[in-house]
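Q: Hi! First time doing this. I have a protein sequence and I read that you can turn it into a structure. Is that right? Here it is:
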Amino acid sequence: MGAASELSIVQSEVRNVLSKAKAAGVLRMAFHDAGTFDMDENSGGMNGSIVHELERPENAGLKKPFKVLEKAKREIEKSQQVSWADVIAVAGAEAVSLCGGPSIPVRLGREDARMPDPEGKLPEESLDASGLKRCFLKKGFSTQELVALSGAHTLGSKGFGNPVVFDNAYFKILLEKPWASSAGMSSMIGLPSDRALVEDDECLRWIKIYSADQVQFFEDFKSAYSKLVDSGAVWRSG
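A: Yes, that's right. Below is the predicted 3D structure, encoded as C-alpha cells:
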C-alpha cells in the first residue's frame, strides 16, 4: 500500500473518533509524547512512550485522549500496522485542523519505544522565560518556535479565547495580561509559563507578530509542529 493511502486511512479513523471537545486533550498528548526529547542525550521524543507514562503527574488527564485514540488504532490495525507514535502525531495535526487551524502534513513510519522515557524532561509549567528558552533549546527549538508552539494553548480551558477554536487569540490575550487585574476569573488565565513569555523581550517580539498576523502564526506553528513530531523519532526501515 502506498504511503499516501496508508496516511489517509490513519487520518480517516482518527477523524472518526475526534471531536472539537476532545481536540485539546489529543493535541496535549502529542506535545507530551514528543516533548521528552533531549538532544544531548539523544533520548525521548515522538516514540509512543506516553502510553507507558500515563500515571505521571504531568500527564494527568491524558487517559481520556488515550482511550479515544486506542479506538482509532484498533480500527486502523484491521487493515494495516500503525505505531502509537504515528497515531498520536497524526491525531495532534487533525485536532488542530478540525478546530480551524492549519492543515499539517505528517509522515508515517515512526517506531514505538518499548519502555517509558526518562522522567523530568517536559518543560515545567512554573518555568520563567529564560528557563523555557533553555529547555526548548535542549530539544533543538528556537525562541520563535517556542512561542509558536505555545500558541497551542489557544485550545482547551486555559482561558485563551474560544476553547474549541484554533486561532491567534492566545497571543492577543497574552498582550492584554488579564491576570494582572484582580477581577475574579481573569486571574486564572494561563499557566505561569504562558505569563512568563510576555515578560521576555525576544518572546514578546514574536507574540506581537502572531497577534497581528494569524496567517504567519499558522505557517510557523505548522513548521514547528512537524519538527516536534519528528524529533527523536526512530523511523522504520523499508
